[in-house]
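Input/output pair, single chain:
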Amino acid sequence: MKQILFILFALLFLSGCGLKEKLENKPQEPAIDSQTDAGQDNSSTSLDWAGTYKGILPCADCEGIETVITIKDDMTYTIKTKYLGKDEMVYEQKGDFLWNEEGNTIILNEKNRTPRQFLVGENYLLQLDLKGNKITGELAEKYFLHKAVK
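Output:
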């Protein structure tokens, strides 16, 4: 009986040593780099995005939509649109916007309509489709608004 207890004790001791070795040789957790996670570079943190952007967006039943968007550091915007070839009326909306999770797209907070989204690049905004995807096809290049020079 003593021999059985001795063998069990020896096995437990040896297996414990193996476990200790495994724990000691466990790979170290990578050091957290504050610039790789929360501080990642994206449009909202890296670009001088505030300003006025202008262009003529495609229109299904007019010559184009002359569009001027001003986005401000305080997360507000003004958008002015004029339907070319229809009338001389300039429509103006004001509101606030937010950034998507990736920090590369602004989403205009618009009442009574699906919010418009714009990918923010170096000195341009690119209007996205209703699902937040880049517009493709023949007219894809016509959805850019370029930052006005001060």
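DSSP finds two helices and eight strands in the chain. The two ends are 93 Å apart (CA to CA).
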